[in-house]
Every structure is written in structure tokens, then in C-alpha cells.
Amino acid sequence: MEYKIFGARQKAPGDFKDDLRAVLRLDDQQRDALADWFLSARSYELSRPSLPAAVAASTLLPDQFRQTARVIRFLLRNWQKYGLELQDIERDLLLLGFDSGDISVLSPLLARLSPAKERVWLDDVEYSERFVGLPAIADVNIVWNARPLFGGSSWHYYPADGDNHTTFLGLTYLATVEIFTSDRGVRQRTAIQLDEDDFQRLLRGMERAGEQLDILKERTKVVAPHGKKD
Description:
- By secondary structure, this protein is of the alpha+beta class.
- It is 47% helix and 18% strand.
- It has two domains: 7-129, no CATH class; 136-223, no CATH class.
- The protein has eight helices and three strands; from the N terminus they run H-H-H-H-H-H-H-E-E-E-H.
């Protein structure tokens, strides 16, 4: 038998059936919260540590949300990617062993989410492009510290000149910027130290880059994917 939702691979992801059964175990309010997120989200990335506000306000548990959103995202993406009809998905689910009662729950949910399927597919295309070429940023942490200043450093190997190293002069403020990058699933950590002037220079550079991005988006909006929300 040939499945349409799995494309050329003809193989379901390892947890596909379990994830779909998790969708079936949700109550109506939980499925509504899941559907509302798909219809309003600007990104469908599920690895972020914090939950979307609307989902956090629902009775969906974090693992519940990620498990069920993952399989719905898969179906919506492939629905658009392979130019399928809803009946194609229903047929494949029946072939996979889901009964008519299961289809009567899943099909209305998918029909409701039909307007989001192109955005989900485009988001997946854009997400994949981030892993082509250079590593992508996975996380950034910035922590400020107040470092004490003494008249002499404690880290010199040669003998201290007098007792200046015991003279407390005050504090200086330093930021530790910790950047985690991901290169095809391999994470690396880079940490740099900035004083207040360096930090302000970084902020000004980011502000200029933001202004350039606004101009670039304005000038190229005619060729932007029309399914993506700004």
C-alpha cells in the first residue's frame, strides 16, 4: 500500500501513531487551545523552553502540547507540501489502523487548521534553511556582574609590589555574553566579556542592523512568501 502523507520515504516518523493517539486523548478545550495556537502563531518551533501564553493558560501540559503539536505540524506541513486533499489524509490514517471514530475527531480539527497549513510548511522551509551553511544561534544568555577593583592584581605570578593588592578601589561592571550555537544538532558554547562601553556599542550595532532589516523587508516584501505573516 502507498501512503500519501509520508512522501517518497513511505515511512511514518517513529512516534507518529503515539502522537496522534495523544491528540485523540485531549478534551475539546485542549484541542481548541492547540488549534488557536496554530492559527495565530508566527513560528511553529517547538523546542523553545517557554510555552506560548495561550497554551500556558490552558490545561495542556508542556509535554502534552509539544507531543500533539509535533504531529499536527507534520500533517499540516505534508498536506501543503504534497498538494493533498483532506480525504487523502483520512485514507492514510485509516490504512494506519485508526478507525472511523478517530477520523471523526481528527478530520474536523484538520479542516479547521487548513488555513494554517501553508504557513506551517513555509516555516519548516525557513527553519531548514537556518541549518544550511553556518551554525545558527540556539540560545543567548547575558549576565551582569560587579567585579571588585584592587590596587594590584591577584593573578600576577611575580611577587606583589608592596601591599597595593589589598587596597579596595571600588567596583567595575562587566557583562558575560554566552552564546550557544547549533550546527546540525551539535551545540557549542562561546562566552565573551563586555564592559559598559562595549555593551553600548553592541546595542548600537544591533539597533543599526534592526533598521537595515526593516528597510530590507520593506523593499523585498513583493517577493516574500505570501503565506507568512509579518
